[in-house]
TrEMBL record:
UniProt EC number: 1.14.14.-
Residue ranges of every copy of the Acyl-CoA dehydrogenase C-terminal domain listed in the record: 240-376
Family note: Belongs to the HpaH/HsaA monooxygenase family.
GO MF annotation, one: monooxygenase activity
Species, as recorded: Pseudocitrobacter corydidari
Annotated ranges, domain Acyl-CoA dehydrogenase/oxidase N-terminal: 22-123
Claim: Magnesium is one of the keywords in the record: no
Biological classification of the source: Bacteria, Pseudomonadati, Pseudomonadota, Gammaproteobacteria, Enterobacterales
Pfam families the UniProt entry points to: Acyl-CoA_dh_2, Acyl-CoA_dh_N
Gene that this sequence comes from: sfnC_2
Domain of life: Bacteria
Protein's UniProt name: FMNH2-dependent monooxygenase SfnC
Claim: Oxidoreductase is one of the keywords in the record: yes
Alphabetized UniProt keyword annotations: Monooxygenase, Oxidoreductase
Amino acid sequence: MTAFWALHSNDNDPQYAALAETFRPVFARIREGAQAREQQRELLFEPLQWLKAVRFGALRVPVAAGGYGASLPQFFALLTELSAADSNITQALRGHFGFVESVLASADAGKKSRWFARLAQGDWVGNAWSEPGDAKQGTFTSQIVREGEHYRLNGKKYYTTGSLYADWINTGVSDEQGVWVNVVVNRHAEGVTVEDDWDGFGQRLTASGTTLFADAPVQAEELTRHESATSYDPAFYQLVHLATLTGIGLAAAEDVAQAVRTRTRSYSHGNGPRAAQDPQILQIVGEVYSAVYGANAIVVQGARALQQAFEAIGHAEAADRANQQAELAIAQGQTVVSALILDAVTRLFDALGASATSSAHGLDRYWRNARTLVSHNPRVYKARIVGDFAVNGTPPGYQWRIGTA
């Protein structure tokens, strides 16, 4: 399936090799149907069940708690491989893995015990943070109100990626005093409705549409007060995008290599009787693979920075420094990876004829999916943030919000 040499993979790491042996057969099965799912808009329930069966969602859960205990470099390497199989799935699980990190970083032993058990058995967690319309930055119109020992939640969210497939939904809301709080709601509870109304031209299967809460029940133990301390969470979420982009690039590179390998027609003004013997065509294929290699190297480096931030949890000064370095490392990576992959999934068509634009081949999905991902947390701001730190020592922000100012 995947040309792992192009990823400069970690198969020489025995723990990674064991993890990969568990998951690669499932990744291969996912990739076999990826194009058909995209073209027929077949939602991801079945492939997510395959991943649930091997407890992919427990990758970062400690071994002692029933998980796989993967490091962040191991985790992101596997995420890149999954993205090469079907980037829709990685995007749909982004909120899940971000939630797992928040549990790992929590000082609440009860929360860890409760959630490690759920995650180890395969539960998925979706997200519901952004609000549509004129919602203001830093606040939520969605609100919880106390009802006896527990709470009720009312509100409307959009970009609720993955929640249609989830067992739980992690969301940010306001309490009765207007204070930002974090709650987790049972996806199948009364009063919770998830609508498949995402209409983006890319990542079509992520179910990134609307979630409605109408007096949805919230257990008191699932409420957490938001803390504004520095965190590696924003950098983590962004690196998931970069791993997904790298996987998209790898899948596209393999498809163009296969198309050139089997193409029998050639141009009279070309450089060989077949495309596979044309040096200019081979150069394009090589450049696409090189872009993927460069993108993956950045993901690997970003994962190392995040691992350092994770290991600094509980040591305030060291954690602040490590979080800052992770944020800056991945901000720099975002500007480069975005350009590399967007260029690669456009240039691959230069190695092929007009027949490659047939919708039957589905090669357009790589550009559409990559372009959609790059539009999240816009890269246009990242180089400025890095430059401001380099010149003025201005630290990066640790929480990105969208809404009216």
